[in-house]
Amino acid sequence: QGGFFVPGAGQAPMSQAQVPSNAPGHAAPGYLAAPPMSMAPQPGYPAQQVDGLTQQLSQMGLGQGQQEYQNAVLSGRPPIAALDEAPPATRLPAGTVCVPSPHALCPPHVKRSTLNAIPRTDKLLKKTKLPFGLLITPFKEPEAGEAPVPVAPDIVRCRRCRTYINPCAQFVDGGRRWRCNMCNLHNDVPMSFDFDLVSREPKNRWERPDLSCSVVDYIAPVEYMARPPMPPVYVFIIDVSYASVQIGAPGVIAQTILSSLDRIPNVDGRTKIAFIAVDAALHFFQVRPGSAEPQQLVVSDFEDVFLPSPTDLLLNLSECREGIESLLSRFEGMFQTNHSVGNALCPAIQAARKMLGNLGGKIIALQASPPTVGEGKVELRPEGKDLGTPRESDLLRPQNSWYKTLAADCTRAQVAFDVVSIGQQPMEMATVACLARYTGGSVFHYPSFMAARKPEVDRFMYELSNHLAANIGLEAVLRLRASKGLRMAAYYGNFFLRSLDLLSLPSVTPNHCYAVDVEVEETLTAPVVYFQAALLHTTSYGERRIRVATLAVPTTENIHTVFHHADQVAIASLLSKKAVDRALAAKLEDAREALQHKTLEIIGAFKTECTQSSSGATTQLQLPRSLQLLPQLVLACLKHTSLRSGNNIPVAARMAAMNLVLTLPPELGVQPYIAARLYALHELPEQAGYSDAQTGMTVLPPRLGLSAEVLAPHGIYLLHSGHDSFLWFGRNARPDLCHALLNAQDVSTIPNGVISFPDLSGGADTPAQGFELNFRVGRIMRHLSELCYGLWKPVTFVAKEDGEPVIRLMLQQRLVEDMDTSAPSYQQFLSQLRDKINRGSF
Amino acid sequence: MLTDLECDYINPIDLANGLNTYVMPEMAAQLVLSVAFLLMGEWTSMILNLPLAAWNINKVLGNRQFYDATEVFRTLSKHKKENFVKVAFYLLSFFYYLYSMIITLVNESTDDVRAGSVH
């Protein structure tokens, strides 16, 4: 390791000495520890002209002096296992938190910053070229083992900036006053902190949940309500036109709703529900409370949409339960022979709004054909020739602004929309989905739905049922506050922006994430900055509450700290949301270009600022260990259905993918949705598939890199991307494994296409004889589904190496590290970046 | 109204509804004025108004003339700048028209005086 130390080319000799092994199946350590501290000009460091040997010796012994910041060299395969690691720790100075409690720091799945060490000046932030933003999932449900969100007894807020008291507030003046951590004002501590007024007993103030937990609920008093809390209201607009009846949608929808009636939140018996069936006319259903006979009322006059009956259309779920059940069980039969072609969605929406009146609520539109009647009727835009050309971006934009203005209007009435598109027919989702995007709703897409296809029906029923059972928040607003000097610039997600820091959400879904771009306006002087998100909402059981989440992030003036504490998953999530937003506002090509340029800038900035070869050419690119997967994730975004170039992605599929990217939280959106999980099933380690002794959770096998190189011809693999899952069988897959997995003789007898993964152990807790593999893989798949918070029930595609090319193509599109028609392979991408950086053209 | 939106006095939907009622009348009036100058032969005034007329026509063709409540925060600074420029232009052209009108009136009255005094 001796020899000259040549500035600029210094990396080459050392890196060649330690080439990482490219063994497939290994979480390949594709990085190596470069010199512990980069050669930034700092006092006490020898200048670069000093004798090389002394320098290298001094580097070796330097590990303890500076932090152990390791740089990763980008070469070989990306270390995919690093995706499962926790985000970089935030090093908060001692004493930031007033009560040391495990809940005092905001959990990353509720609120996450892309940079866990924030640069103090805007100049420094611009130098790093890193995107600075927050990813907030304000209404996240606590997971199975976690404690529920604590409720604080009363509301204490700062006088000046209206921040809620949080674990990072400091008590001064002997505990009589508290200092707001956002604006530094000293506020008085109310008596109720130390003395319980009701029971006349002294209280321990440190037991208050809002001082020890960063995520806390307050019960909102009357000042926070514009009107009494509303009950959950669901209006189903179901398409029963000929197109929908052909695929059997009305029957399955009615079946799903019938089986979810008990799961719909209805704690205090005030929940209301209504049904409107839509074809070329509107069908309303009237149920008198207590009667079991629903009455159908048909309205065909759309000039002036009116409700056929003033009462009993919006039904109370508890009171009219019998009638509703009878209606739903007869629903399929009523429309089975319906030949009406045409879809009066727009009048239906107007009627639904009349029905809801001032109450507000959620309108769920289940559509299988495009709206053809009414003001908002859409013309089907032919897509064939335009895919893959710059004109494709026009197809992604809404055709008319009727839906957008309607959505904006509905947010004032606290009406939210969910749009579910079922079936193959083009429905102009780009236009109709605006309803959901601007009212905080969700968009679902089931293109291959058919009542005869059991896996599809299962998936539809599972996902819709979970969605209806979700503990939603109603008539909500979300306000984000940050410390002085920080400004929220732009927001991404499904919401309506009521004011510069206020998001109006007529309905909040637990799994929706909102991303914010943050700018550093003034120099930050404090060592720690805070972000507080307050969600004022009505719960599904009629209580007005405020959910407050506070995040504390340290600041730094050192550019190396900023780089080494960046959160790559959060950055990838924010970049993908920004790219999708740009694609919808401008062009797809612009979005892809911007993503690549950003990655180039980040790598270039790191090279210039933090490595020895700051202005010379390098043979290997370096990134901090915290960002080592960034090129891989960006490449995955570029190859994902939402942004992928090419002419074989239908507009509806692209819109659905874009909607998901915009709303998924980073721990779901980045992986597995964009960067799937790949496991080898033919060589599962012993413990995989069984419960771990300590945690009780299913042990997962090691992940593989997403490349066709790892797919051995004798192997069986599982690729899980959240939304879909694939079972890949190599052409020489062992027959005994095929038997153990799917009870098939050998590879050729396994059916191509979509299957329902069979449970060959009959639901027992131990595997049946000879079917252990099936049992273990079933458990792994269930665990992977649980990791996605039950959002999806993926259908299982069987892809064989020598089987149907369509499914093989679908799987290969998810093998991100390989080259395909839309984007280069990982190695090529890296070399392109390296060339551009070496040329200095970025 | 735009600064009201920034200071959170009104919400975007009210802004859009309020301002959108004035967009088309303003453009129509501006177009009528330009055409009137064209027909009257007032070439300088017409040339002054031509850039604004072209800008308005461009917006109408691209369907961008109305305020969109969902996107208004994104384009807020652009709209403000545009409105400032328009106000400045209208003010300057107002004074120009006023000046031309006074000149014309003065010339007319001196003509009348001259014509009247001859008789």
TrEMBL record, chain A:
Taking every annotated instance into account, which residue ranges of this chain make up the domain Gelsolin-like?
698-748
The record, for Pfam families, names: Gelsolin, Sec23_BS, Sec23_helical, Sec23_trunk, zf-Sec23_Sec24
Which InterPro entries does the record match to this protein?
ADF-H/Gelsolin-like_dom_sf (IPR029006), Beta-sandwich_Sec23_24 (IPR012990), Gelsolin-like_dom (IPR007123), Gelsolin-like_dom_sf (IPR036180), Sec23/24_helical_dom (IPR006900), Sec23/24_helical_dom_sf (IPR036175), Sec23/24_trunk_dom (IPR006896), SEC23_SEC24_subfamily (IPR050550)
GO molecular-function terms, A-Z: SNARE binding; zinc ion binding
Xref: CDD domains: Sec24-like (cd01479)
What keywords tag this UniProt record?
Cytoplasm, Endoplasmic reticulum, ER-Golgi transport, Golgi apparatus, Membrane, Protein transport, Transport
Please state where this protein is localized.
Answer: Cytoplasm; Endoplasmic reticulum membrane; Golgi apparatus membrane
* Annotated Gene Ontology cellular component terms: COPII vesicle coat; endoplasmic reticulum exit site; endoplasmic reticulum membrane; Golgi membrane
Q: Does the keyword Cell membrane apply?
A: no
Residue intervals of the Sec23/Sec24 trunk domain: 229-467
Q: Where is the Sec23/Sec24 helical domain?
A: 567-667
Whether Transmembrane counts among this entry's keywords is: no
Task: Note down the stretches annotated as region Disordered.
Answer: 1-48
| Coiled-coil stretches noted in the UniProt entry, renumbered to this chain | none
PANTHER family in the record: SEC24-RELATED PROTEIN, SECRETORY 24AB, ISOFORM A
Q: What is this protein called?
A: COPII subunit
- The organism of origin for this protein: Coemansia biformis
Automatic annotation (TrEMBL), chain B:
Provide the primary localization: membrane
Please tell me whether the keyword Membrane is annotated for this protein: yes
User: Native species of this protein?
Assistant: Coemansia biformis
Known SMART domains for this protein?
A: Cornichon
Q: Which UniProt keywords apply?
A: Membrane, Transmembrane, Transmembrane helix
Does the record carry Phosphoprotein as a key word? no
- GO BP term, pick one: vesicle-mediated transport
An annotated GO cellular component of this protein is: membrane
Q: Which PANTHER family match?
A: CORNICHON-RELATED (PTHR12290)
Pfam families, sorted: Cornichon (PF03311)
Its membrane topology is listed as: Multi-pass membrane protein
Transmembrane annotation, as ranges: 31-55, 87-106
Its localization reads:
Membrane
- Top-level taxonomic group: Eukaryota
Lineage at the top is: Eukaryota, Fungi, Fungi incertae sedis, Zoopagomycota, Kickxellomycotina
- Family indicated by similarity: Belongs to the cornichon family.
This chain belongs to the protein called: Cornichon
